[in-house]
Structures are given as structure tokens and as C-alpha cells.
């Protein structure tokens, strides 16, 4: 066995994980701060939303290119570039005098963070054999779920005690330290690769994924019938259709769709996308219910979600070890069963539901989630030959972004339609009973309608998860496809100089 396989580069992986953690934490850190930014910089809601929409779009455009970048450049070069862009963006955002500077800083952050996660996943895949991969990917699962989950809680506390600029000034020193440590410790070598980025591939990918993400994100706010939504979604579908055909005809595609010929990888992608679509019901609807229906403060709503995030973080490495021992199917089926049951229980909320009951149910739901995402994705990636890892990780991250956008738009639409339906139903019922529709009565009707709409949306989410549960029953433990490829560690050595 290759020496680098005997001694995985734990120090370097730790640096990459810290970088990925702050990048993923940054994804949800700003949500609570948007009202403060609106007031301080004098912008409206439509404008300030670009801080999250723009971040998502840059990620959607950049992530598909990471397969090419990882094959072309060294781990050291990519890490320093990504964390460098993220750091500069963080500093720009912290001192931004006007909104345009803040948005520019946010875009720089996104361009850096988009590279970090696929890079980290690729390093983990080439540094550990399949028999030990579940454990280390479990720690990665901790980052994927724990960092975004604590973002709102941490942001609420920071906003309450400082101001929104502290969200950037507190992260900047950590990202600077990551850059310095990476610069000093990261030394890797790579054989010269004759690989060029095809410009047409980049344009088609950017237009396709960017348009889809923008279209689905806008649909949740302005409706599916909006001409801008319809146009961007159609443009995205057409561009992606051409992109896929074009990539399949290339000898060295920017993003290789031929990886879908590996059945367990394809299955893992479908399951992950379905779960991502449904999971946004919890992250989106629980805070809405907590604040609008049972009158919790934003800080209390954030605290409510924290125990579930902690349980998910603790269980991810444990489930990684269980994956190494038992494989992914058992974990996925059990986890998806728990997700289905708990999501169905969320569809029976009432005005009497307490904060404690919500927290316990959310903990159970996140416990189930910890058994699903990384075990499913790891099982799929394990089937790919080593030279397909960059394409597999890039495809996973890209399609999960798209699935999240579709899921959010779909669930917001269901919530809106069902709330309007119940509002009209309750108004008609009140009129039949001869009640006077005072402002207080209309407010009560609005809350009852929203509650019923939230319950219906959770019910639809439970049905969506059932499809993932059925598919998980067909998972099989896989062995790696070789195809005569040298192990990447022959070309890429990410050990610190002290280990060489």
C-alpha cells in the first residue's frame, strides 16, 4: 500500500475541514441579519435578498467547474485560492460602506467557498481506503449539517449583542489563520496535466445551472406563473440539455455525466436530491411556526433548532463508523424511516404545541438525517473509479444545490396555496355562521389558515421522503471500479513536509 494511504494527512484534512466549516456556517449566518442590514444600509427586502440569492448563484456556477480545477491544479493552490477569496470577501463585507460593496464581498466569499467542499471531499476520498472512508466522511457530515444549522442561532446571538458587521469580523481572523496554516503546511505535488477548460462548456454550465437556481428561487417568492420565472427555468433546462449532450461527446469533459452509468452512484444522487428537497420543510417551516403561530422570538426559534443540530453533529461520525461496519443500506433505511415518521408527526402541529415538544421532535428528525446523507453519498462515491472522484463530488454538490432550490420553491408554493385555500374556507364558514369579520377575527383566521397550510406542507414532505425510503431499499454495498487507474496519491501528496 502507498505510504500516503498508510498515514492519511490528518493535519491537512483538519485545516481543510475548518475552512469548509466557516464557509458552510457563512451560508446561513446572514439570514437573521437581513433586517438590520436593510435598516443600516437603506435598502429594501428585494435588494437585500441578493445577499443570499447571489451567494447561491455563484455557488451554482462555480461548483460544476471544480471537477476541472481539482484535476488541473494542486490541492495547495486550490485551497489557498479558495480560502484567500473567502477571506478577502469577508473583509470587504465587514467594512462595506454601501450595499454594493457588501454584495461584492459576499460574491467573493461564495466563489471561494464553492471550491472548498468538493476539494475537501476529493482529498478524503483519495486519502482513505473504502474500509475506513465512512468514518472520515462522517466527520464531513458533521460540517455539512452542523455548521448551517447553528448559523441562525449564532447569528441571532451576535446581532443581539453586537451588529451585523460582527458576523464578518469574527470570521475573518479564523479564515486568515486557515490561509496561513495552509500556506506553511500544505505541500503537494502533481504531475503536469494537459487539461484545458472548454469555454463553451463553462458558458453552458453557468447559464444552465445559474438560470435553474435563479428561476426556482424566484418561484417561491413571485409565483410559478411569473414570466421571469418561466423564462429562466426554460433557458436553464435547454442550456443543461445542450450541456449534457456536449459533455458526453468530449474526450475530457468539464463535468462527466458518464458517471451515472454506475448504478449505486446514480441511486445515491437521486436519494440525496429527494431528501434535500424535503428537508427544507423543517429548516423553513419550523421557524415560521415558532415565531408566527406560538409567538417565540427569533432568538428562541434559533435555540429551538440547536439541540437537533448538536445531535446531528455528534451522530455523524458515529454513523460513519457504523457505515464502515454494516454498509449504507441499513443506516439509510432506518434513518429515512425516522425522517418519514417525524416529518409526518410535524404535520399535526397545533396552537397548543410547546417549544419543548418542537425541540424533541426536531432532535428525532435530525437524528434520522444523520444516518442518511453522508452514508448514502459515500456509498455512491465508493463505486466510482478514482479518476472520476472530482466529477462525482462536483456533481453531488451541484445537484444538491438545485434540489434544495426546487424543494424550497415547491414547499413555499404548497404553503401559499393551502394557506389561501384554508383562509377562504374559514371566511366562508364564518359568514355562514353570521360572524362579523373584524380585524381580530381576520387575524385569527389568518393564523389558523397558516397553521393548516404548514401541516399540509409537512405532510407533502413526508410523502416525498417515502420515495427516498423505497429507493434506499435497493442500495448495495459496492467495491471500487478500477479501470486501470493509478491511485491519485501517486500524483497528489497532501502530507505536510514533516511527514515526507
Number of strands: 0
Q: Which bin fits the share of residues in helices?
A: over 70%
The geometry reads as globular
Main β-sheet description: none
Low-confidence blocks of residues? 1-5, 482-500
CATH evolutionary superfamily of the largest domain? MFS general substrate transporter like domains
Radius of gyration: 23 Å
Oligomeric category = single chain
Q: Which CATH C-level class of the largest domain is it?
A: Mainly Alpha
Reading the helices and strands in chain order gives HHHHHHHHHHHHHHHHHHHH
Name the average pLDDT.
84
What fraction strand? under 5%
| Euclidean distance between termini CA atoms | 16 Å
CATH-defined topology of the largest domain: Growth Hormone, Chain: A
Give me the CATH architecture of the largest domain, please: Up-down Bundle
Derived from helix and strand composition plus strand pairing, the structural class reads mainly alpha
Number of domains: 2
Secondary structure tally, helices: 20
Protein name: DHA2 family efflux MFS transporter permease subunit
Keywords: Cell membrane, Membrane, Transmembrane, Transmembrane helix, Transport
Main location: membrane
Pfam families: MFS_1 (PF07690)
